[in-house]
Amino acid sequence: MAESRPKKQHVRVRIPEELDQAIVTLRARENLSFDEACKRIAIRSDPNGKQFEEAVDKKAQELGKSTFMKQLNSSRATIQKNEANAVRNNEDNFHVPCSKCGKPMSFSSRDSNWSTIKPVLYAAFKAWSHTTCQK
Description:
There is one protein chain. This protein has helices spanning about 15-30, 35-45, 50-85, 115-125, and strands at about 90-95, 105-110. By secondary structure, the chain is mainly alpha-helical. Among the domains are: about 15-60, no CATH class; about 90-135, no CATH class. The longest helix is centred in the middle third of the chain and has 36 residues, at about 50-85.
């Protein structure tokens, strides 16, 4: 058998014009329902200010976390883009073919005498292979 709920009763009351305008303005500005706007106004008018202070702190934390996450995701995207380019400051990048499959392996050197060291590095990495090719 289905449980029946009592119907909500609507009560008409007269409120001061200033309060009515505050509710209307808040609802329009923040796209709130009447109940939500009334709750916000009640919190703001709390005589001790505790509820309002807690609500402001909570909203600040939510916004802070949101901003932090946007910055974090942006930083991650930048790092991934830079890693994809595989170019580091003050380094010379070079590629040596894998001794097993022939596909290029990427390396870099910070040696200031690149023209002299380049042939040595190519010779040193000539027998290297990808870890996946060693299986």
